[in-house]
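input
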Amino acid sequence: MKKLALTLFVSIFTFSISLAQKGSGLSVTIFGDSYSTFEGYLTPSHNEAWYFLDRQQVDNDVVAVEDTWWHQLIKKNDWRLCMNNSYSGSTISSSGYGGADYTPRSFVTRSSNLGNPDIIFVFGATNDSWVPAPIGEYKYSGWTKDDLKSFRPSLAKMLDYMTKRYLGVKIYFILNSELSDAIDSSVKNICAHYNVPVIELQDIEKKAGHPSIAGMKAIAEQVDAFVKKDMKKGRKAKAFSKKMFPKKDMKKNGNKLGKKNKREKQSKRK
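output
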């Protein structure tokens, strides 16, 4: 009997350790433009990169994947990279540079291919600001192909899809510094509509318009600080909810409501 109990204990203990190890790191997807690219780390693999291994781009000093903001962030938190669907030059809308149609590389088009993560970091709108793409009107349904040439309806369509497609996934929008006022205000308003937190970057060093090693470090630190604060706030809200609505009370109230409904049905039959 003792031997059986010991065997059972060891089995449960081993299973618990295995489960803990499996769930120790959250899975993260990076969904971005050139700021989040790096040669050899993109899905799909044909996505264009701006940062390359051991090859300096213009006067930018980022030449190792360890220098990227997302690699630093994931490593620091012991998370796992689900996938990095970033594409150099991509816009959220379909309006590209020189009037080109960027539909294939747009964020709206790529939003269906983000894996199965716990967290998604959306880091876009920079090229929409630089093109500049038409701003358009705030529109939260019934989007047409023409609507998607403009920034506001495109961002709304993308977030509408993502919040419905990736249920239970935490989505953050990283907003670059030095973008147009119209882009900044549009991102904040549309993200607020879909309850997506916005991480506003400040004082990011850039070389050739792209984060340098120092800039990447600053992005990683600012995103990390925001996420930690947001998760702490979420835990407090959960603890408050449990305190205000204990499971026993909820079950008790549910039983009372069930009995009340049953009595009402019996009364109607009479």
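quick obs: The chain is about 45% helix and 10% strand.
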